[in-house]
Design brief:
Blueprint (H helix, E strand, L loop, with lengths): L1 H18 L4 H30 L17 H34 L5 H5 L1
Helix pairs in contact: 1-2, 2-3
Length: about 120
Protein backbone atom coordinates (compact mmCIF):
# COMPACT_ATOMS: atom_id res chain seq x y z
CA UNK A 1 0.00 0.00 0.00
CA UNK A 2 2.79 2.38 0.88
CA UNK A 3 4.51 1.68 -2.43
CA UNK A 4 1.32 2.58 -4.31
CA UNK A 5 1.00 5.84 -2.34
CA UNK A 6 4.60 6.79 -3.04
CA UNK A 7 4.21 5.94 -6.73
CA UNK A 8 1.00 7.99 -7.07
CA UNK A 9 2.55 10.91 -5.23
CA UNK A 10 5.59 10.85 -7.47
CA UNK A 11 3.46 10.65 -10.63
CA UNK A 12 1.18 13.52 -9.56
CA UNK A 13 4.19 15.49 -8.33
CA UNK A 14 6.05 15.07 -11.60
CA UNK A 15 3.02 16.20 -13.60
CA UNK A 16 2.59 19.30 -11.41
CA UNK A 17 6.33 19.93 -11.61
CA UNK A 18 6.27 19.90 -15.41
CA UNK A 19 3.12 21.99 -15.73
CA UNK A 20 3.71 24.66 -13.09
CA UNK A 21 7.06 26.28 -12.44
CA UNK A 22 5.75 28.03 -9.30
CA UNK A 23 4.92 24.82 -7.49
CA UNK A 24 8.12 22.93 -8.22
CA UNK A 25 9.70 23.68 -4.87
CA UNK A 26 6.82 22.56 -2.68
CA UNK A 27 6.10 19.51 -4.85
CA UNK A 28 9.68 18.28 -4.48
CA UNK A 29 9.62 19.03 -0.77
CA UNK A 30 6.30 17.22 -0.26
CA UNK A 31 7.51 14.19 -2.23
CA UNK A 32 10.73 14.07 -0.23
CA UNK A 33 8.84 14.40 3.06
CA UNK A 34 6.48 11.59 2.07
CA UNK A 35 9.22 9.18 1.00
CA UNK A 36 11.39 10.07 4.00
CA UNK A 37 8.47 9.78 6.41
CA UNK A 38 7.47 6.36 5.11
CA UNK A 39 11.06 5.18 5.32
CA UNK A 40 11.34 6.48 8.89
CA UNK A 41 8.10 4.77 9.95
CA UNK A 42 9.31 1.51 8.38
CA UNK A 43 12.68 1.63 10.14
CA UNK A 44 11.13 2.45 13.52
CA UNK A 45 8.51 -0.29 13.18
CA UNK A 46 11.19 -2.76 12.08
CA UNK A 47 13.29 -1.87 15.12
CA UNK A 48 10.37 -2.40 17.49
CA UNK A 49 9.31 -5.65 15.81
CA UNK A 50 12.82 -7.07 16.08
CA UNK A 51 12.42 -7.37 19.87
CA UNK A 52 9.41 -9.66 19.38
CA UNK A 53 10.64 -11.65 16.36
CA UNK A 54 13.90 -12.94 17.82
CA UNK A 55 13.92 -16.23 19.70
CA UNK A 56 16.22 -15.35 22.58
CA UNK A 57 16.53 -18.98 23.74
CA UNK A 58 17.86 -20.15 20.36
CA UNK A 59 20.98 -18.28 19.16
CA UNK A 60 20.82 -20.13 15.84
CA UNK A 61 17.64 -18.20 14.97
CA UNK A 62 19.52 -14.89 14.70
CA UNK A 63 23.06 -16.08 13.94
CA UNK A 64 22.61 -15.62 10.18
CA UNK A 65 20.90 -12.21 10.42
CA UNK A 66 22.69 -8.99 9.63
CA UNK A 67 24.88 -8.09 12.55
CA UNK A 68 24.98 -11.71 13.74
CA UNK A 69 26.07 -14.04 15.19
CA UNK A 70 25.82 -11.94 18.38
CA UNK A 71 22.52 -10.63 19.69
CA UNK A 72 23.94 -7.16 20.33
CA UNK A 73 25.07 -6.87 16.71
CA UNK A 74 21.65 -7.95 15.42
CA UNK A 75 19.96 -5.33 17.59
CA UNK A 76 22.46 -2.67 16.52
CA UNK A 77 21.76 -3.30 12.85
CA UNK A 78 18.00 -3.73 13.06
CA UNK A 79 17.04 -1.20 15.77
CA UNK A 80 19.92 1.26 15.41
CA UNK A 81 18.48 3.22 12.46
CA UNK A 82 15.13 3.58 14.25
CA UNK A 83 16.85 4.89 17.37
CA UNK A 84 18.87 7.38 15.30
CA UNK A 85 15.68 8.61 13.63
CA UNK A 86 13.89 8.99 16.97
CA UNK A 87 16.88 10.84 18.45
CA UNK A 88 17.05 13.21 15.48
CA UNK A 89 13.30 13.85 15.73
CA UNK A 90 13.55 14.67 19.44
CA UNK A 91 16.53 16.98 18.84
CA UNK A 92 14.66 18.73 16.03
CA UNK A 93 11.56 19.23 18.16
CA UNK A 94 13.56 20.57 21.11
CA UNK A 95 15.45 22.98 18.85
CA UNK A 96 12.21 24.12 17.25
CA UNK A 97 10.60 24.60 20.67
CA UNK A 98 13.54 26.75 21.78
CA UNK A 99 13.24 28.94 18.69
CA UNK A 100 9.52 29.40 19.24
CA UNK A 101 10.08 30.40 22.85
CA UNK A 102 12.69 32.95 21.82
CA UNK A 103 10.32 34.44 19.26
CA UNK A 104 7.43 34.72 21.73
CA UNK A 105 9.32 36.34 24.61
CA UNK A 106 8.17 39.91 25.23
CA UNK A 107 10.74 42.71 24.86
CA UNK A 108 12.34 43.91 28.08
CA UNK A 109 10.84 46.92 29.81
CA UNK A 110 12.79 50.14 29.06
CA UNK A 111 12.31 51.47 32.57
CA UNK A 112 13.97 48.40 34.07
CA UNK A 113 16.91 48.81 31.69
CA UNK A 114 17.42 52.51 32.64
CA UNK A 115 17.56 51.89 36.40
Amino acid sequence: MAVVCVFLTLVVGSVVWVVSRRSRRWVLRAAGMLVGGLLAVYLIARGIAEFFIIDYANPESYAQDWGGPHLLGVFAVHTGPGLVILGAAVAHLLRRRGRQRAAVQPPQDRRAAEV
